[in-house]
Amino acid sequence: MAKTIFHAAGKRGHANHGWLDAHHSFSFANWYDPAKVHFGMLRVLNDDIVEGGKGFGKHPHDNMEIITIILDGALEHKDSMGHTESIMPNEVQVMSAGTGVVHSEYNHNPDKKVNLLQTWIFPKVKNVKPRYDQKVFPQEERINKLQALVSPIDNEDEGLKIHQDAWIYRTTLERGKIITHTLHSQNHGAYIFVIDGKVTVGEQVLNKRDALGISETDSFDIIASEQSDVVIFEVPMS
């Protein structure tokens, strides 16, 4: 029997700073919920909206795998490794912070907000040399199938590489379609986050921005009640 935990969209942490409207799936900054500290190696899932002309100033990270998925708008990234890149919709950025990196993220468009998902995954090795990568993942290549956005650095699967036995998939499911995901290990779980639409996983119905953690199972089905945009984080549970 699979073990599940349901996280309703409306029960996420919320902080509106004016320039930043943030929803936190897991405890972050000033919001703390002892029942929502992490899901396995998935530590942070922030759903951020950044106002035009605003952004995150320079700040440091270390020993964390940081993945940014742009849903709408464009975000400029600058870091201490010398990268200055704009991240657009359907693009994903990974940054292995390792021994330490400083970066900033900024919305230079004064007339359009940026909506992004930022994920932090605990690495399996610490103090690696910091690294950066970015790639476009075309929407048409994930219709009714799983598109690998992220995969382990020592694995030949598609996707940008991170220092953890973790995968991130995205799919656009048409109404009535079913997709099955088989986990890579018995020690893994999956955190299923609905960007948009309505799906069912097991007995649980998930609407826009709802999430379901599932573990202690070999596989699961996602059934779309309407056209849906879904992201799956497969991570070690320990």
Describe this entry's structure for a reader.
The protein has two domains: 12-136, Jelly Rolls (Sandwich); 139-236, Jelly Rolls (Sandwich), CATH 2.60.120.10. It contains no helices and 22 strands. The protein has strands spanning 3-7, 13-16, 20-24, 42-50, 55-61, 65-72, 75-79, 84-87, 91-96, 101-106, 114-121, 131-136, 147-152, 160-162, 167-173, 178-182, 188-196, 199-201, 204-206, 211-215, 219-224, 228-236. A hairpin with a 2-residue loop joins strand 18 (199-201) and strand 19. The radius of gyration is 17 Å and the shape is globular.
Attribute tags:
0% helix; mainly beta; seven-stranded antiparallel sheet; seven-stranded mixed sheet; 2 domains; Jelly Rolls
Strands, helices and their partners?
Blueprint: E1 3-7, E2 13-16, E3 20-24, E4 42-50, E5 55-61, E6 65-72, E7 75-79, E8 84-87, E9 91-96, E10 101-106, E11 114-121, E12 131-136, E13 147-152, E14 160-162, E15 167-173, E16 178-182, E17 188-196, E18 199-201, E19 204-206, E20 211-215, E21 219-224, E22 228-236
Parallel strand pairs: 13-14
Antiparallel strand pairs: 1-20, 2-3, 3-4, 4-11, 5-10, 6-9, 6-11, 7-8, 7-10, 9-12, 13-15, 15-22, 16-21, 17-20, 17-22, 18-19, 18-21
